[in-house]
What does this fold into?
Amino acid sequence: MSKGKLFFAGVVGGAAMSVVMGIARAMGMQVNLEMMLGTLPGLQPGPLTWIIGLVMHLMISGLIALVYGVVFERVLHRAGIGAGLLVSIGHTLLAGLFMGMVPMMHPLIPEQMPAPGFFMANIGVMGVAAEVMLHLMYGAIVGGLAGGALTRRVESPAHS
It folds into this structure.
């Protein structure tokens, strides 16, 4: 499977997550991953910092899709929406644990920004639900976009 296609699938999945988080913010939910990432190096919150955080999120999403690709090829031997959802369960758990550790490395938490908590629990039940659903959505997108490329490669007589 092409690393470029996988990376692109991850960027698409990350962009979809950012769009849904933007809608959630517009509805009053206090979720702003882009600002949290953008301020991680110590930058003050602002529009440019948000854009930096968005770029960071999209690049991280692309890199994570490469890990999905390894699991698709070497463990599951298939890709698709279902396989992406399956892999995203582990991704959801790791991301949820990571969110709880962010305050240990983020210079603006808790003085200027709230800590998200494990699985975004500090936002409440909706935060936990959002963390899980966003990562499942990401996995479905990455798996769906990667599915055609992996299937063609596995079924190709040249690779048998």
